[in-house]
Specification:
Length: 167
């Protein structure tokens, strides 16, 4: 299986492409789509969608994993995160891909073993588990963790440990 995972944000969207299964995942690509703060939000969202669309076209994933909606105290932050998530969903839908969502706490639990793990802990574990030569940027590490969680949820022996929702 080839999975494309996204940690959506308007300014710094993390993405990752993994292939294989949870026992032998192979990293094909990962990174952060950074949009300058001088860009208005509508242009930034269009750029995020376009970058993701082209990356999905390049890597031809079987499925997409995306971060689920999280609780935030700021309405503005929630709206912004929702818009970035929508840009991700549209890019995947344009390719006709199945989209699965995962709660951030569940992803952290699957990769680190603690649902309240810090971004540094996630990045450290992703580097170790995927045998990367360097620690990925935080947003890319979150996307790599999401991809690993998706592969885990597809494994019949581990599927009941991680709830995945087809959206």
């Amino acid at each position: 299986m080839r999975v494309f995972a996204v940690d959506p944000a308007v300014r710094n969207t993390g993405y990752a492409v993994l292939e294989g299964d949870v026992r032998a995942p192979r990293v094909l690509d990962y990174g952060v789509i950074s949009i300058p703060s001088r860009e208005v939000q509508s242009v930034a969202l269009a750029s995020v969608r376009s970058h993701l669309y082209h990356l999905m076209q390049k890597w031809q994933p079987d499925e997409v994993a995306v971060e689920g909606i999280i609780y935030v105290q700021s309405h503005q932050t929630a709206i912004s995160m929702g818009a970035a998530r929508a840009a991700t969903l549209i890019a995947a839908a344009d390719h006709g891909l199945k989209i699965y969502e995962y709660a951030p706490r569940k992803v952290k639990m699957a990769v680190v073993g603690k649902g309240n793990a810090s971004k540094d802990q996630v990045a450290f574990m992703v580097r170790a588990l995927l045998k990367l030569s360097e620690t990925p940027p935080a947003d890319a590490a979150d996307a790599l963790a999401m991809a690993m969680a998706h592969l885990q949820s597809a494994d019949p022996l581990r599927a009941n440990l991680l709830e995945r929702r087809l959206i």
